[in-house]
Amino acid sequence: MAFDPETYVYLDYAATAPLCEEAAAAMAPYQVPGRANLSVGGNANSLHGPGRAAFEALEAARRSLARDLGASRPSEIVLTSGATEADDAAVLGIARAAAAERRRRGAGAGFVPHFVTTAVEHDAVLAPAKRLEAEGFRVTRLAPNRQGFVEPAALEAALDADTVLVSVQAANSEVGSIQPIAELARAAHAAGALFHTDAVQALGKAPLDLGALGVDAASLSAHKVGGPKGMGALYLKARTPFEPQAVGGGQEDGRRSGTQNVAGAVGFAAAAHAVTGMLDEEAPRLRALRDALYARLAALPGVEATVRVDPGSAGFLPNIVHVLGDGLESETLILRLDMQGFGVSGGSACSSHSLEPSHVLRALGIDADRAHGALRVSMGRYTTREDVDAFAEALEASLAWNR
């Protein structure tokens, strides 16, 4: 069924954000065809004029991203095809390199490299964790508390002399809990381990200074903040052990081979600069919408917040509302709302076609039947109070029809 983008109320920003004006304008020169494209559209690794122009644009984007992310130098930003590649590269590349370095330094015969993550990570971290396990690593998956937070004491208890890497997301994409990353990174470092964070959902929604947080690596995505799809970055702190996963041409200082997507990098940098620049205004605005929607939905029969988000709370992302409904099947409800012109989800877009209940909700202790009735509303830059009010009315009507 076709939908009208002029009237459709899009409330699935945690899955992807619409392309923002700043990214579109930055990329526009790269969309011209033919000879006109040579002024910006060369291969950034070529020595001729078009190549030099592309290289200059690529490095300007890298410098911009480094400034906005809190990196100490542009070379710490490795451009990737997206956050999934960045997560894979960080988990596999750092864990393997760190384990090899331990062995070179004389780790004993009983050394079994240990990777620690959480049970609520994105599959882009959980899948490479399984691969490490198959390679002989020990893997610990920490359970969060009922509100979705990983407690530093739980991490400290899991760490041991063989731990080489810890990976904890900065913010959860389903329930919105913001993890105490700086404290968790300090605990990992105190045990001699490196620390990676999947910062995809945090960028543009919460303060994010990677240098101040003290992490060794972080994964980021362009399309979550209004940049182009197929573009991401891996922040890799200088001197962090790393084994590249994409090898061949030696681009990105040998850390990620493949001809760089110059237009994508330029668009990503423009979008990241826009969202970080408007954070002080946008976060309170979105938080007010979040709190109003939670209050409105709490009044509906059979609907309850999945986690307790107090009004004004900065411990959760300002743009995510997550609820559970008694006797509801989220897929049916999502399609019914879509027919009325509202786009929401039941959780991560990467698992939206799975019949299994969310692994995040199961890790929070929510039983499968309840988890099947989950609904996630995620807002963004173009969401208005009118959008939120109209959605609440549509949901109420849908629930009444269901009853």
Keywords:
single chain; 403 residues; alpha/beta; seven-stranded mixed sheet; three-stranded antiparallel sheet; 13% strand; globular
Overall description:
- The chain has 403 residues and is of the alpha/beta class.
- Helices cover 39% and strands 13% of the residues.
- The protein has a 7-stranded mixed beta sheet, with helices on both faces. Strands 9-10-12 form a 3-stranded antiparallel beta sheet. The chain has a two-stranded parallel ribbon with strand order 1-11.
- Strand 3, helix 4 and strand 4 form a beta-alpha-beta unit.
- It is globular, with a radius of gyration of 22 Å.
- The protein starts with 8 loop residues before the first strand and ends with a helix.
- The model has no long low-confidence stretch (mean pLDDT 95).
Give the CA-based shape. globular
Q: How do the SSEs run, as a string of H and E? A: EHHEHEHEHEHEHEEHHEEHEHHEH
The largest β sheet comes out as:
7 strands, mixed
Content-based structural category: alpha/beta
Number of helices: 13
Spatial separation of the terminal alpha carbons: 25 Å
Q: Count of DSSP E strands?
A: 12
Give the mean pLDDT.
95
Low-confidence stretches: none
Strand order of the largest sheet: 2-8-7-6-5-3-4
Strand content: 5-15%
